[in-house]
Each structure stands twice: as structure tokens, then as C-alpha cells.
Amino acid sequence: MRIGGPVFGEVGGPDQWIASVQRAGYSAAYWPDVTLSSERDEQCYAEAALKANVKIAEVHIFNNVLDPDQDRRREALRYAKERLALADRVGAACTVNLSGYFGEKPAPHRDHLHEDTFTLIVDTVREILDDVKPERTFYALELFPWLLPNSPEAYLRLLDAVDRKAFGVHLDIVNTISTPELFLNQESYIKHVFKLLGPHIQSAHIKDIVLTNQLVVHLDVAVPGRGGFDWSTFLTEFGRLDHNAPLLINYFLGDEEVYREGTAYIRKQAERLGVDIL
Asked: Distance between CA atoms of 163 and 154, rounded to whole angstroms?
């Protein structure tokens, strides 16, 4: 498998970007946050990654394609299609987006898990895929506790309903560990997730998770190695995927030193388990 994460400092061009990725010990990368003026500029980054054997794992979208304001929704759909087309041109593993939400931010809302919302998500994903027709990448959704898909069962149901070859799974399994029962029975739960979704997984986000001794239930994310996540089961199952899927440490966990710590921890656990990381 491949591991990646954020890189820090100025991108500075394809060679500097790849140097930062390699310095961090990564063999996979987020598409850099750069503004490019032409498809040729994009290809310079894609070629630099290919030459260095670095997989472009993900092109971010993360916008609101279900925005109730129709003008904003049209713009969100335009951007999502643009980013999916970019991912296809540069050969990224996938694009990742939220399914969409009904407020100013992706906060809990009574209608997010409604059956009508499920249907709207299906229609929206189909529109994006049918307009772009990607051949080298996948459109995928972020698993999220209060948005669909919020469980492996919900994701599998969406895969079946959308029924498009280029609709794949981006796995953020920690986002679905939302109860003490799931936290305390991670081994069986992780195996269940991979049994349901394994063939469809194109990439994954990862972080650690902590169940705190605090009422009401509090589950907090953490840097890899600082929580109670079942790394043994997860890395074993992820390592069995047959296509070297990229595993990306989540954004927002801290500074560069934190990511060095997290990357070293994951590599140490993989080595202990006999799981190969490129």
C-alpha cells in the first residue's frame, strides 16, 4: 500500500512539491493547492509524480452540491465536475466530496438522513459522473456521521443505487466509529467494513480516535498513535486490498512535526504486521 499526507511550505512548482512529498516519506499525495493556467501545467505535476513513483491519491472537492440556494448549487456542481475532470486528466485515484448539506456548513440537520435526501444524492452523483464521464479516476464521497453515507451499509446502498462504474469508495473509517459499542468492538467492525466495501475502496483517510471519560459520549480524533484505534486490524485489512490503494493521514491534525510522528507510527505498525508500504 501507499501512505501520504499533507506537505508544508510553498509548493513552488512540480519538482519542489515532489521533493516535499518524498522528504515526508510519502509514496502518495494530495493534489497540491495550486492555481494552474493550463492543462500543460497540470501535466507537469502529474509527470513529476509519475517519475517519482508517487501516486496522486486525491483531488479535493468538499463543497455543497445540495445547497438549497439554486445559484450556489449550480456553481458547486460546476466546480465538482471541473475537479473530477482534473482528477481524470492527472490520473488521481479519486476525487472526494461531501454528499451535500442543507445549511451554511455540514452540521447535523433533521433532513440529512431522510430518504428523499438519499434519492437527491443518487441523482446528483449520477449527474456529475454522466457529464464528466471519467475514465481514469473515481468520484467518491466522504463518510460522515450526520451526512449520507454515514455507515458502510449506507455507502453500499448508494453504490448500488447510483450504478455507475466510476463511483467508488473513499474510506474514512474513523468517521463512522460513532458509538461506544463500535469503539469497543473495532476488530469485528473493521472486518465488517472491509467485507462490504473492500472491492470498491479507491483511497482512504486515517487518523486515531479517543473515547473520553466524559458525558455525554465524546469521541475525539487524534494523531495516529495517540488514541485507541485498532491499527492492527485496519492495516492488515487495508494491506490486503489488491491495488495498492493510497492511505492518507487526515488534514487538520497539527503541524509538520505531528505528521512526522503519525507517519512513523503507521510505518512501525505496518512493519510489525508484515504489511508492505511502498
From this structure: 14
